[in-house]
Structures are given as C-alpha cells and as structure tokens.
UniProtKB/TrEMBL annotation:
This enzyme's EC code(s): 2.5.1.17
Family: Belongs to the Cob(I)alamin adenosyltransferase family.
Residue span(s) of domain Cobalamin adenosyltransferase-like: 3-165
Species lineage: Bacteria, Bacillati, Bacillota, Bacilli, Bacillales
Keywords in alphabetical order: ATP-binding, Cobalamin biosynthesis, Nucleotide-binding, Transferase
Catalytic activity of the protein: 2 cob(II)yrinate a,c diamide + reduced [electron-transfer flavoprotein] + 2 ATP = 2 adenosylcob(III)yrinate a,c-diamide + 2 triphosphate + oxidized [electron-transfer flavoprotein] + 3 H(+); 2 cob(II)alamin + reduced [electron-transfer flavoprotein] + 2 ATP = 2 adenosylcob(III)alamin + 2 triphosphate + oxidized [electron-transfer flavoprotein] + 3 H(+)
An annotated Gene Ontology molecular function: corrinoid adenosyltransferase activity
Identification of the protein by name: Corrinoid adenosyltransferase
Enzyme class: transferase
C-alpha cells in the first residue's frame, strides 16, 4: 500500500460522506484536533513514567478520544455513527476536580511555563482552545456532535489542571503573571 494517493493534489480531501476543499472549516476543525493529538504525544514524551504514570495513562486515553472527536467532525453524510459521548466529558470533570485538589491553590493568573513538561501541556491547552473555536465556527454552518464541543471545552481545563500538577510534583513553582490582581480569591494559599 502506498501512503500517497494523489487524490488531494488539487486541494480536495475525502471526508466521511464526500469530499471537501482542504481549507473548509470542517477540515480545519478536525485537522486542528489531529494537531492537538500530536502535541499530546509530545507532552507524554516529556513525562517520566515514575512520577506521572497516572497522567500518562489518561493522556493516552485522551489521544483515542481525540481521534473519536476528529472522526465525528469529519462526517458529512446523513447517517452518523458518532463516537464522542458524555462519559468522556464526565471523566474529564472528575479528573479536573482531583487535580485541582492536588495542586496548591492559586490566586493570580499564571503564565505557561515552569517545567518543560508543564509547558508542553500548556501548548495542548491553547491548541485545544483553537480547535474549540473552529468547532464553534463549523457548528454555525452545519450542526456537529455537541459532545465534541463540550469535550474540547472541558479538555482545556483538564490541561490547565494537569500543567499545574506537573509543576507541583516536580517541585517547580507556577509562573505567576506579575501584573495579575488576585483573581482566584476563594482559594487560600497552602503553607
């Protein structure tokens, strides 16, 4: 089997149910989800198995779920066999709550950074937000699986939570935005 088909040489690509221009918002949306999946792989490579076994396992699960989301976004046929589901969202919410409890409370905005692994996760977070914006744009044109949008929204929060936990487990302080007011006033700092 050859990896190249030459069918996209004129700027069109195959989706489930037909063909679209490669710059169509649908292709941009699932392409950005694919890009995100690649960055998750980079982030996994930055994590030590010893300290982050739980997070690595979750990120690998998320890679499969991102593939599901991309597949759902690539469907233009009337018959839709959707894979993204509410259980995926619920799992992220549970993990966000657990990681929020594990990390020290924050009072100010933080900058992406600290450790290299945490920085890689912040890249995932920002690419997730871009994917989310594209799915919103697509949904205005043609209704999409609403769970995908919800999942991406929650996923960016998940990435924020684990970026902080990664720094915490590595004993690296989050980088506070120096001109930030106290925006998370409900949190009390741990000593």
């Amino acid at each position: 089997m050859k990896l190249y088909t030459k069918t996209g040489d004129k700027g069109k690509t195959s989706v489930i149910g037909g063909r679209l221009d490669k710059d169509h918002v649908r292709v941009e949306a699932y392409g950005t989800v694919d890009e995100l999946n690649s960055f998750v792989g980079v982030a996994i490579a930055e994590l030590s198995e010893e300290l982050f076994r739980d997070i690595i396992k979750e990120l690998e699960k998320i890679q499969h779920e991102l593939f599901d989301c991309g597949g759902d976004l690539a469907i233009i046929s009337k018959e839709k066999n959707l894979k993204a589901n509410e259980e995926m969202v619920t799992f992220l919410e549970e993990r966000i709550d657990a990681y929020t409890d594990e990390a020290p409370p924050i009072q100010k905005f933080i900058l992406p950074g600290g450790s290299k692994a945490s920085s890689a996760i912040h890249v995932c977070r920002t690419v997730t937000r871009r994917a989310e914006r594209l799915v919103v744009q697509l949904d205005k044109m043609d209704q999409t699986n609403q769970v995908v949008l919800k999942y991406l929204n929650r996923l960016s929060d998940y990435f924020f939570a684990i970026a902080r936990v990664i720094n915490f487990r590595l004993s690296v302080k989050d980088v506070e935005y120096e001109r930030s007011a106290l925006v998370f006033k409900d949190n009390k700092t741990k000593d």
